């Protein structure tokens, strides 16, 4: 097994200053590198990616699943504004700042949402982004590795080969090791009537299932976008350049046509320009893509005027519609848990050394899995979390969307928000709205994955070096708190099932001993985090009259030669981990861009 530390390092930065490329991509994260790889397949097409962060150093914390967390290359300190519904606290906004973006720092869970979610995007204006039309791109993005059949049978691992790809760049696999408590979790969930899902990637992502990971099983190391969409091809692509440690400050326009970008070299502070003869592609993630557009004159003209920025296109939807998954840690002390568990690598140095030796020898080991969150997840629709989903749906319907957006919102943004709410609420009882996972150690994680609250990304300065104002608007719609409560209460039921009760769980946070629902809700609000690092949707692919920013071909309304391809284009957030959907969406965007330039 080639160890992470022994990888040859390829650190590259080819000159870009004052040059001209066919395509310039701002941000070398998952979507940026995917699109760069696909466009540069065409030999006479030149592509430049400008990325804020460095190349990673194949650090153990990056490469080895069990060495994950803490992870280097996070964007620190990136903070939210005070969250009004959460007592005015500010929260960390987790994001990667490195070539490969989130794929270098994420927990590697690699799975898709339910078909209805993508079909709803299509209905909301992302025409052609249905499950059926995205499935070929999900397949194209991955090489799925089925697990060893004996191991699979022993650990309830199931999959559906017909929905997977077998020659794509992202290596997707199941961990070949698990902690014993995983069986208690699985059996406990099943005893509560939770359905076992054969494969969440087949269009129904509800039930309990094992998580596939973006891990190459040949080496048991991370398959990041840097590896699968850059290292994999770069030796044969003199037309594919990545400029690390460089910050795109704004898009340069001639009229409403994007003709290049201005960028700052982080080391020298020098600002340069580079021109794009075909297209500028924004892919800086869901917080920074709207910031770049706004600094370039694309956004709410009145807000930009307050910063003295001349409007190129008045697009009030830019930076609106921010969404993420609520994330609540529920800690238990397991008085008779079996050793080892998901906390043992951190708490027991002897065990960690023994497991690392096994890992280094290429044998199954606790270092094969990201122990922070566990190997399985329960994702359920509202009616499976609570017997009273009707009252939560009624609460959602009773809200005033205009007031939720702060009163007096832009009419186009309000129109899109209303359409989203209608379709999301009507699907509450059929698609997943939240999750539970348990790391088999002290930590259970609860997520609300279909929030109705919306946030914003707004300028704080005319400088790209100053982070924007990131307001998640967490729990501004009280429906989200009711969903969190429902999942929290179901988790208590889960812990009381004989399969888990045998481990002696005693809740230590957030609401030990509390039974009064109002008191529990207060405790949940005090402990929930507004982000699970799944920010999205701030340049939504919706109709312009519904607050949309890009059309179904990823083009920014009112401009020429400018597109957005990252998770900021989604109308609403997917259930579960976003990265598989980012890869697939970027594969689709690459085809669309190639087609319009006659490159397919
Ligand atoms: C800690 C963490 C854990 C996660 N765990 C999971 C998981 O287990 N499963 C899952 O599915 N998803 C997970 N995610 C989320 C997933 O990684 C993201 O949804 C995904 O990376 C988003 O892709 P993107 O292309 O939209 O943006 P990113 O991958 O974030 O890429 C954006 C890139 O743009 C760069 N950039 C920003 N501003 C500028 C600028 N001005 N100039 C130049 N470059 C710029 C950034 O440095 C970054 O590299 C996690 C994310 C984090 C941070």
Helices and strands in order, then pairings?
Blueprint lengths: L19 E7 L3 H10 L7 E4 L9 H4 L38 H4 L9 H9 L7 H11 E4 L3 H6 L15 E4 L7 H11 L15 E4 L4 E2 L4 E2 L2 H10 L5 E4 L2 E9 L2 E9 L5 E12 L2 H11 L2 E2 L1 H5 L7 E2 L11 E9 L9 H4 L1 H12 L15 E5 L1 H4 L3 H10 L2 H4 L6 H16 L7 E5 L4 E6 L7 E3 L10 E3 L7 H17 L2 H4 L3 E5 L7 H11 L34 E3 L14 H18 L4
Parallel strand pairs: 1-2, 1-11, 2-8, 3-4, 11-21, 12-13
Antiparallel strand pairs: 5-15, 6-7, 9-10, 10-11, 14-17, 14-20, 15-16, 16-17, 18-19
Helix pairs in contact: 1-8, 1-20, 5-20, 17-19
Bound molecules: flavin-adenine dinucleotide.
Enter the CATH topology name: FAD/NAD(P)-binding domain
The share of residues in helices is: 25-40%
Between the first and last Cα atoms, what is the distance in angstroms? 38 Å
What ranges have pLDDT less than 50 throughout 5 or more consecutive residues? Answer: 2-9
* Strand percent estimate: 15-25%
Which small molecules are bound?
A: flavin-adenine dinucleotide
The overall average pLDDT, rounded, is 95
The helix count comes to: 20
Q: What CATH architecture label applies?
A: 3-Layer(bba) Sandwich
- CATH H-level superfamily title: FAD/NAD(P)-binding domain
Would you report the number of β strands?
21
**Oligomeric state of the chains?**
single chain
């Amino acid at each position: 097994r080639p160890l992470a530390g022994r990888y040859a390092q390829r650190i590259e930065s080819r000159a870009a200053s004052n040059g001209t490329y066919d395509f310039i991509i701002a941000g070398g994260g998952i979507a940026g590198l995917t699109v760069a790889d696909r466009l540069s397949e065409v030999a006479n097409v030149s592509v430049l990616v400008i990325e804020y962060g460095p190349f990673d150093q194949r650090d153990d914390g990056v490469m080895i699943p069990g060495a994950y967390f803490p992870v280097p290359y996070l964007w620190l300190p990136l903070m939210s504004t005070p969250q009004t519904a959460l007592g005015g606290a500010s929260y960390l906004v987790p994001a990667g700042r490195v070539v490969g973006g989130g794929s270098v720092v994420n927990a590697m869970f690699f799975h898709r949402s339910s078909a209805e979610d993508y079909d709803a995007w299509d209905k909301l204006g992302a025409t052609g982004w249905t499950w059926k039309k995205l499935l070929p791109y999900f397949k194209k993005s991955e090489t799925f590795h089925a697990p060893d059949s004996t191991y699979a049978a022993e650990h309830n691992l199931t999959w559906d080969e017909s929905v997977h790809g077998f020659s794509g760049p992202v290596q997707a696999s199941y961990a070949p090791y698990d902690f014993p408590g995983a069986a208690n979790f699985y059996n406990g969930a099943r005893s509560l009537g939770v359905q076992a899902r054969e494969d969440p990637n087949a269009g129904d992502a509800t039930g309990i299932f094992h998580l596939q990971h973006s891990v190459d099983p040949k080496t048991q190391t991370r398959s990041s976008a840097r590896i699968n969409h850059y290292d994999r091809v770069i030796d044969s692509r003199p037309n594919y350049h990545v400029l690390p440690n460089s910050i795109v400050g704004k898009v340069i326009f001639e009229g409403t046509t994007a003709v290049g970008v201005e960028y700052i070299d982080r080391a020298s502070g020098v600002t340069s320009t580079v021109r794009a003869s075909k297209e500028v592609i924004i892919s800086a993630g869901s917080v920074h893509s709207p910031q770049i557009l706004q600094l370039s004159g694309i956004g709410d003209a009145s807000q930009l005027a307050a910063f003295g920025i001349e409007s190129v296109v008045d697009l009030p939807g830019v930076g609106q519609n921010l969404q993420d998954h609520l994330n609540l840690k529920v800690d238990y002390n397991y008085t008779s848990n079996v050793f080892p568990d998901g906390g043992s690598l951190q708490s027991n140095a002897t065990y960690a050394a023994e497991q690392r030796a096994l890992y280094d020898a290429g044998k199954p080991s606790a270092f094969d899995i990201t122990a922070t969150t566990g190997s399985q997840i329960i994702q359920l629709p509202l009616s499976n979390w609570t017997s009273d989903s009707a009252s939560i749906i009624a609460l959602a319907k009773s809200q005033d969307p205009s007031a939720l957006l702060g009163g007096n919102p832009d009419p186009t943004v309000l129109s899109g928000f209303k359409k989203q709410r209608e379709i999301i609420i009507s699907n509450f009882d059929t698609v997943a709205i939240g999750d539970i996972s348990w790391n088999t150690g002290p930590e259970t994680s609860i997520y609300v994955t279909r929030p109705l609250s919306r946030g914003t990304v707004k300028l704080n300065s005319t400088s790209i070096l100053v982070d924007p104002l990131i307001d998640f608007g967490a729990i501004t719609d009280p429906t989200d708190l009711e969903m969190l409560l429902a999942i929290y209460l179901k988790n208590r039921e889960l812990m009381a099932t004989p399969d888990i009760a045998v481990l002696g769980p005693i809740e230590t946070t957030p609401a030990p001993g509390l039974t009064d629902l109002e008191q529990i809700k207060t405790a949940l609000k005090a402990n929930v985090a507004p982000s699970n690092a799944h920010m999205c949707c701030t340049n939504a692919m919706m109709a312009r009259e519904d607050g949309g920013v890009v059309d179904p071909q990823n083009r920014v309304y009112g401009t020429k030669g400018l597109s957005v391809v990252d998770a900021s284009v989604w109308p609403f957030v997917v259930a579960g981990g976003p990265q598989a959907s980012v890869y697939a969406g970027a594969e689709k965007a690459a085809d669309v861009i190639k087609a319009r330039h006659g490159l397919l």
